[in-house]
Specification:
This protein is mainly alpha-helical. The protein is about 70% helix and about 0% strand.
Length: about 190
């Protein structure tokens, strides 16, 4: 199946990116799917569905560092497994996810002053803590929209939800973040 997916990708750079993701992350993707589905064959099918979705959106993975790629792979995989589960059982599922590596610390740039770097790193730490308090659905929506820059129309396929549902998740997540962060910190986020 992976050969079919790779052959369907026209760009050599995108094909190479998807192949690298498959080689590096597929065992982890299967484990994540297994944690949700509790069935090895279903987990493998769901992980392959995630790879197919990643291949369809391969241009979004070009030029990403390994932390960003890993975060996106987790989002795609978790949502593929949940979709698989929902199709199979027609019930909701709840999963847990640690996004400790989702946001990186801001690196020191010689053109910035130290005080600004410290404030930015503290802001990132506060935001990371607030994101952990959101539901998985809200966190995925916020991360895809504001951290990765996806449009709502693109998010519908990844999150397997209607655009209106995704907009509502983002709206509710932003309100929850405003409540958790306070107005001053929330305004620095530029949501």
């Amino acid at each position: 199946m992976i050969c079919e997916i790779l052959l369907a990708i026209e760009s050599e750079e995108e094909r190479s990116t998807v192949e690298n993701i498959y080689l590096e992350y597929f065992p982890k993707m299967k484990r994540l799917c297994y944690n949700i589905l509790k069935h090895p064959e279903d987990a493998e099918d769901a992980a392959m569905n995630a790879i197919a979705r990643i291949a369809d959106n391969a241009e979004k993975f070009l030029g990403k560092d390994c932390n960003e790629t890993a975060s996106l792979v987790v989002i795609y995989t978790r949502n593929a497994a949940i979709s698989f589960y929902n199709r199979k059982k027609r019930t909701a599922v709840h999963t847990s996810y640690d996004e400790s590596d989702e946001l990186g610390e801001i690196r020191a740039d010689e053109s910035q002053d130290v005080e600004r770097i410290v404030i930015n790193n503290e802001t990132v730490a506060i935001l990371r803590q607030a994101l952990r308090q959101l539901s998985d659905e809200q966190r995925d929506a916020i991360m895809l929209k504001y951290y990765y820059g996806y449009r709502y129309s693109e998010m519908t396929e990844i999150l397997c939800a209607d655009e209106s549902t995704i907009r509502m998740r983002v709206f509710r997540a932003k309100n929850k973040l405003r409540e958790l962060l306070g107005d001053e910190v929330y305004e620095r986020m530029q949501f």
